[in-house]
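Please produce the structure of this protein holding NAP.
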Amino acid sequence: MKKELYKWQKQQLLPAVPAVSVNNYRSASSKALSDAIAEKLEKQYGVEALVVKADVSKYEDCEALVKAAVERFGDKIDVLVNNAGITNNCNWIDITHEAYENVINTNLMSFLHMTHLVLPYMINHSSKDNQCCIVNTSSVGGLTGVINQADYCASKSGIIGLSRALALEFAGRGVRVNVIAPGMIMTDMLRGVNQDELNALAATIPEGYIGDVSDIAGALEYLLTAPYVTGQIISPNGGFVLQ
Ligand SMILES: NC(=O)c1ccc[n+]([C@@H]2O[C@H](COP(=O)([O-])OP(=O)(O)OC[C@H]3O[C@@H](n4cnc5c(N)ncnc54)[C@H](OP(=O)(O)O)[C@@H]3O)[C@@H](O)[C@H]2O)c1
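Below is the modeled complex.
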C-alpha cells in the first residue's frame, strides 16, 4: 500500500505530503476493527491514523468527526469515502416508519451530511493537478429493485443521484465524485446468512460466486487514481446486474 501511495503521489493524484487517514466507527466491535486498522496503517505503512466515533446518520456527529480530522491534520482533505450502510429486509406492509427512516438516515442522509461538510475542505486547495476525490458506496440495489428492500433501494438510488449531481457541480474544480455499487460481497452484512441461502444466492450470480472485499478495494483504487473519471458508477457484481 505504501508503494501505491508513493505511486499516486508521484502522479500528483495525491499531494506529496505524508499520508494520513481518519477512520470512523460507531459500535464497539467496529472500534476494535478501526483501532486494529489504524495500528496496521501506522506500523506497516507509516500512515498516521485517527479513529473517531460518530453516528454518521446524525449531522452533529458528522460535524464533530470533520472537526476532529481538521484539528488533527489541518484544513485540506483530499479523499472522502462514504461507506456506512444498513439494511432492514422487511416487506413494505410490516415495516415501521422508524425502521425505514433509520435506513434513509444512515445510508443516504449521512452521505449528504459528509459531502456537505467535507467539500469546503476540498475546494480550498483542489485543482486539475491536485485532485480531490469522493467515492460513495451504493449497491446493485440502487441500480435495480430488490424485494423487501424498498427503503434500502431508495437510499442506494439516492446516492447515485447525489453523486452525479455533485460530479457535475464540482467538475473543473478538481473534485471528482464517483460511485461503487457492489453486488453480493462477503462481509458482516452476509455473514449471518446460512450456507444453503448463500449457495442459492451464488447460483443467481453469472460468475457463480459471492465477491470478496478485494473486488471493492480494486474498484476504489481505480477511482482514486483515474483523473478523467467522474460521475461514474462501477459495479463489481459478477454479472448480476448489467449496465
Ligand atoms: N456486502 C454486500 O453484499 C454489499 C452489497 C452492496 C452494497 N453494500 C454496501 O457496502 C457498504 C459496506 O457494507 P458491508 O457489506 O461492509 O456491511 P457491514 O459489514 O455490515 O458494515 C457496515 C458498516 O457501516 C457502519 N455503520 C452503519 N451505520 C452507521 C452509522 N450510523 N454511523 C457510522 N457507521 C455506521 C457499520 O459500523 P458499526 O458496526 O460501528 O455500526 C459498519 O462498519 C454499505 O453501504 C452497504 O450497503 C454491501
